[in-house]
Specification:
Layout: E1 2-6, H1 14-18, H2 20-27, E2 32-36, E3 50-51, E4 61-62, H3 64-80, E5 88-97, H4 100-107, E6 111-116, E7 121-122, H5 124-130, E8 133-136, H6 146-157, E9 193-194, E10 197-198, H7 201-204, H8 208-226, H9 228-236, H10 242-252, H11 284-287
Parallel strand pairs: 1-2, 1-6, 4-7, 5-6, 5-8
Antiparallel strand pairs: 3-4, 9-10
Helix pairs in contact: 3-5, 4-6, 8-9, 8-10
Length: about 300
């Protein structure tokens, strides 16, 4: 996967290129990062990339020409590498909120070009000519798109095969389909007792079914209290089973044992009981034919008479 970033501050991306699991993956060649500074595509001595907004108002607006030239250079470099044209995403408050599904989609692709805006915004004509997607991290404003781009990159790169030491780690993340899109359960490590607080007993039991159920119930509880909309989404997708719904009803205080369908009792069978013993093979004597009866010869007369 190749990530191209158009930014006035390329050095900020050393965080994901050089550090942590993303840095190790970059060194291993599992993904590549290329930064493009719009100032390198200007033609004046001051390397101007912004100007005052038409219609007046505070702040400055990033100019279209340097941004478009940087995007074209990135696309040409990708083509020289044998890659197709990449989607161009602007980090902006008006964009679609980035989520785990978006990270998975990006991780499954061959890359993207991220545009990091600054100042009051970006000339709308550049957006209409070059931008294919707009991405937001949430309802707040940053001083630039770089921090948001770092989050987008990190969330996707960690999903690439071989990036995490344990390939199953990402499957246990919050929002993952293996957790029904819910929040992850709490985690504990040594010591067993810290400042008087002990690790929950189910985690120490060694009973895998009990551990799995405890984690599932904590996941349900956290999601119900912190992100109830995720529960509704999971319910709509049919990802909650009867045990989940019963536990959620218990949490809400709405569970009624009488509402549970009675357990069905097995009906007695009218068929005669059949022996479970295997039929015995006939004995050798029973299988031998009865020998024929020979005629008895008449008695001989006594010679003395």
């Amino acid at each position: 996967m190749r990530i191209d970033v158009v930014t006035l501050f390329p050095d900020m991306f050393g965080v994901v290129r050089d550090l942590g699991v993303t840095g190790r993956a970059h060194a291993q060649g599992r993904w590549a990062l290329h930064a493009w500074n719009p100032r390198d595509f200007t033609h004046d001595v001051h390397r101007t990339v912004d100007d005052r907004p038409y219609g007046g108002g505070p702040g400055m607006v990033m100019m279209a020409a340097p941004l478009e030239a940087a995007v074209n250079a990135a696309q040409e470099a990708r083509a020289a590498q044998g890659l197709g044209r990449a989607p161009v995403a602007l980090l902006a408050p008006v964009g679609r909120r980035y989520d785990q599904t978006g990270a998975e989609t990006l991780a499954a692709s061959d890359g993207i070009i991220l545009i990091c805006g600054r100042y009051e915004g970006v000339d709308q004509r550049f957006i209409e000519r070059c931008v294919t997607h707009e991405i937001s991290l949430g309802d707040f404003v940053l001083s630039g798109g770089e921090i948001a781009a770092l989050a987008v990159i990190d969330a996707a790169v960690r999903l690439l095969p071989g990036v995490l030491n344990d390939g199953d780690s990402a499957l246990q993340d919050s929002f993952n389909d293996t957790l029904s899109g819910l929040l992850d359960s709490p985690h504990y490590t040594r010591p067993e007792v810290y400042e008087g607080q002990a690790v929950p007993a189910p985690l120490l039991s060694g009973h895998h079914a009990n551990i799995t159920r405890w984690r599932r119930e904590r996941s349900l509880e956290l999601t119900a209290t912190r992100r109830p909309e995720l529960l509704e989404s999971a319910r709509a997708k049919g990802w909650l089973n009867k045990a989940d719904e019963r536990y959620l009803a218990e949490l809400a205080g709405t569970y009624d044992p009488a509402s549970e369908p009675p357990k069905r009792r097995r009906k007695a069978s009218n068929k005669p009981a059949q022996s479970t013993q295997a039929p015995q093979a006939p004995s050798a004597e029973a299988t031998l034919p009865t020998p024929p009866q020979l005629p008895v010869p008449p008695a001989k007369p006594d010679a003395s008479s």
